[in-house]
Amino acid sequence: MMSDSAPTVTGTWATRWTFILAASGSAIGLGNIWKFPFITGENGGGAFVLVYLICIAMVGIPIMMSEVLIGRHARHNPITAMGQLARESGASRLWGGIGWMGVLAGIMILSFYSVVAGWSLDYTVELFAGNFNGKTGEEVGKAFGEGLLQDVPKLTLWHTVFMALTALVVALGIHKGLENSVKLMMPALFILLIGMLIYSATQTGHFGEGFAYLFDFDFSKLSVDAVLAALGHSFFTLSLGMCAIMAYGAYMPKQASIGSTVITVAILDTAVALVAGLVIFPIVFANGMEPTQGPGLLFVSLTTAFAQIPGGQILGGVFFLLVSIAALSSSISLIEPSAAWMTERFNMGRATSVVILSVIVWIFGMGCLLSLNEWSGEEYQVFGMGMFDLFDFLTANIMLPLGGMFIAIFAGWIMKRSVVLNELALKSLVRFNLWRAMTRVISPLAVFIVFVVTLYQKFNGA
Ligand code: TRP
Question: Which atom of ligand 1 is nearest to the CA of 334?
């Protein structure tokens, strides 16, 4: 696939649709189905959702376009791309640092991501085996919190299996590995989610309550932390701020339109999150559970429904299988930038670089995993958080918004206008100017203001 003389990456996605599939495969994952519902619950529902939607439209979409255009213009891994474009634009090579922070963020995210994907693999097996049949909400809750989360050997097994699968797909390269895995699975996930939506709308008797929870905008419930969480999640869910989409952009065909492609991905991603919320909250309310229960929400609420309904054994097994696959199509994009960089920089085989990276992630992942049980004591905490929560907080709420802000500044202020204009090839100058205003001013300012206000509040509120 790679030719020796080629100065840049040579693989390209087969068509524009494969890019959309791969980018939505990256975007749609545990962030949508696991994280979005539980942080919405933790942050009080509606108003949080509204801020999240605004962030997707005003910050996420322009920054995603920036990542794609940088990647496609440079046709290199993110670290090389940023360094090279900086030179081309007469700017400091320090811009390459964004690529570095991306590599680090990718490793940190994948550490806890792989643990959660492991839960999903475990639930796939348990549900197919019928182990939850007939269990009540309380029993399902116990099986998760006091069962699975305390079972270190089991958690380790599934975390290891998931990392091995991720490594395998990335090592196979973008055609065999990435494209094929998303082509079938994404549509299947979609169909199953719609099926679940019909169930939750017609069978739970609490659909209205769930709907209101997501879409009644009660601003009195909105805290500064919730705004930071909404901003951070809009980066996390679109896979932005760590150059993952930039790495994928390097493989995007030249003639594909960046604007409409990115908007399609953002809409698909948002739709999956909202549908997941509409499936989960009615089930939560129907079973008298708390929406605020945190990371166990998906695993407890949905599993309770599967435990009760006829055919839940099969449906549930299929559901968690698809969630696991959605997680896999995201996890590969967390390693792809660093793998591409190591391959290009050190002239290594793709497989070698992937193995090295996966072992590093596996070790950090063990730290995250143990922070849920053996290392849950205060002596293992930093800022009151164990490693799992700390990695989640640092990446989603700090590193991704910061990375995204610099990417926006780079595309808006550093890159030559003519280069960007040509790369985006938008249909009208009005659209181009709109994108430019968003990337130059609105997105960086939004991130900056949220950061400053959060810090201000931390120091005054403490
Ligand atoms: N977006 C994915 C999800 O929602 C997670 C993910 C994949 C990601 N690649 C990323 C998050 C890069 C941030 C950056 O599950």
Answer: 9
